[in-house]
Design brief:
Distance between the termini: 37 Å
Bound molecules: ribose-5-phosphate
Strand order of the largest sheet: 2-1-5-6-7-8
Largest sheet: 6 strands, parallel
Mean pLDDT: 91
Number of helices: 8
Order of helices and strands: EHEEEEHEHEEHEHEEEEHEHEEH
Shape: globular
Helix content: 25-40%
Low-confidence stretches: 302-319
């Protein structure tokens, strides 16, 4: 059963890189927005009987979600044998509990809906904090690519005497693994977040690390407030300008410029979200997981609703 990659808008370079590693085909799919804002999707490559991997990283997820849903359903309707999703950045993982009464636990709801849409999921370092596994919320087979080996290789090659710094307890899992693979010391700070852009990080005791280059490592950089706050503390403590390494470079608004202005010596990220800071290529590791994933479960949509919904010649749809 041959595999085909189906890029959603904005994901063609990623799909082509994955296809190169997998020696797989990239499908041609036409996307259009009707004047009323609704989405039109047309497959120009036959997917009947094939294993389909949708390629769609899920930063800024809300505008992407309807296209993703319609594309997945179309692939099933056109007879794809199975339809998985690779989303190198997996959205909605941070709202994983009800912090205040009445709040949505979005990570669970998002997982529930995505589990209905696709048959499998491959992602990179999802923000698992209060949950230990994607299986807690996803009802489909999932596989996780870990960025740590590639981040550690880069640090070993580029930074002579590194001290790895995790800005908060949540980053410990990534920082500790990267530090161990890079054979470097690490420290983890304490963070209190009071709002989207109101973050306080503990003053680190860094005297014993003079002579080291601090390398901040975090999974997600969104507003960059966490990194900016940490860079400021390290600079005031007399450390050299830090290097900032992110797995997922969201960089909302002017966050990137602000982090540079705060005194980061270099900003490096993995290519899970296209960004000028992408220096670490994970496509080889993602392709390996796509090839190796054990497909065992079908999505929750009953198979009889999947195929043969009919074609009406001569219509362009949308009423
Ligand atoms: C949260 O614990 C994450 O690991 C990151 O520290 C956080 O998402 C960074 O967000 P921001 O860039 O908005 O401070």
């Amino acid at each position: 059963m041959s595999t085909i990659l189906v890029p959603l808008p904005g994901n063609v370079p990623l799909a082509e890189a994955l296809a190169g590693h997998m020696r797989a085909e990239v499908a041609h799919v036409r996307f259009h927005h009707f004047p009323d804002g609704e989405t039109y999707v047309r497959f120009e490559t036959d997917v009947a009987g094939r294993t389909v991997w949708l390629v769609c990283t899920l930063d800024r997820p809300d505008p992407k979600f309807v296209s993703l849903m319609i594309t997945a359903e179309t692939a099933k309707d056109l007879g794809a044998a199975r339809v998985g999703l690779t989303a190198p950045y997996l959205a909605y993982m941070r709202q994983d509990t009800r912090f205040r009464p009445g709040e949505a636990v979005s990570s669970a709801y998002f997982a529930s809906v995505l589990s209905c849409i696709v048959d499998a999921l491959v992602t990179v370092d999802p923000h698992l904090h209060r949950r230990s596994s994607l299986d807690d919320i996803y009802r489909i087979p999932t596989a996780i690519v870990h960025a740590a080996p590639i981040v550690a290789d880069w640090i070993r090659r580029e930074i002579p005497i590194p001290l790895l710094v995790g800005p908060d307890a949540e980053s410990e899992q990534w920082v500790a693994e990267v530090a161990s693979l890079a054979n470097a010391p690490h420290i983890v700070l304490e963070k209190v977040r009071r709002g989207d852009r109101d973050v306080e990080v503990s003053v680190p005791d860094v005297e014993r690390w003079s002579g080291h280059t601090p390398v901040l490592v975090d999974d997600i950089v969104s507003t960059a407030c966490t990194m900016i706050e940490t860079v400021g503390h390290l600079r005031r403590a007399g450390m050299p300008s830090p290097i900032c390494v992110a797995v997922h470079a969201i960089f909302a608004g002017d966050a990137y410029a602000q982090l540079e202005a705060a005194g980061a010596r270099g900003i490096v990220s993995c290519n899970t979200i296209p960004h000028p800071s992408n220096a670490l290529d994970l496509t080889g590791s993602i392709a390996t997981e796509l090839r190796e994933l054990e497909w065992s479960a079908a999505s929750c949509c009953p198979p009889e609703t999947r195929h043969g919904r009919g074609t009406h010649q001569g219509s362009t749809g949308n009423g």
